[in-house]
Amino acid sequence: MKLQIYDKTTCRNGERETPQVRSVNINKNGSFRFTKFFCEEMGVDETKHILFACDEDSKNREWYLSISHLDTAYKVYKKNADSKTPSFYVAAKTVANKILNDVKAANSASILIAIKPTIIDGAEWYKMVTSKPLYTK
Fold first, then answer.
1. pTM above the 0.90 mark?
2. Burial of 23 (0-12, 13-18, 19+ CB in 10 A)
């Protein structure tokens, strides 16, 4: 038998491991909070903007996002800027509620983001895997 001991020295909140997942957490207030892994991999920071799109012709209304510099896109904000691990988010209440309705979530959901983009009209769009959310509340 091999026991892993968990106590105050082995369980520090600031040092816990977070999964390396490309996902976004969405809540009904309109906040899209991106995982650290996604932000690092995609170069998302407060200088970027995010566009959202829905393929209304698809069977299950597929959602996509694109990293942009357009002023008409949603601005990325930095939260906890003084922290060792700041987070980045977008405020888009209308879009958030449409996605939450599509995944049948009342309050929030965590959704995976595809690794490889789909090129549409010369822009890179990353599919949001709404068919199988990581969780919904």
1. no
2. buried
Q: Are strands 23-27 and 108-113 parallel, antiparallel or unpaired?
A: antiparallel
Q: Which residues contact 25 (CB under 8 A, 6 or more apart)?
A: 31, 32, 33, 35, 108, 109, 110
Residue 6: is its pLDDT beyond 80?
no
Residue 75, amino acid: K
Nearest residue to 95 via CA among 42, 133, 54, 43? 54
Q: What is the pLDDT, as a whole number, of residue 19?
A: 58
Whether the per-residue pLDDT at 110 is higher than 90: the answer is: yes
Report yes or no: 89 and 32 within 8 Å, Cβ to Cβ.
yes
- What does the block give as tokens for 95? 């879009």
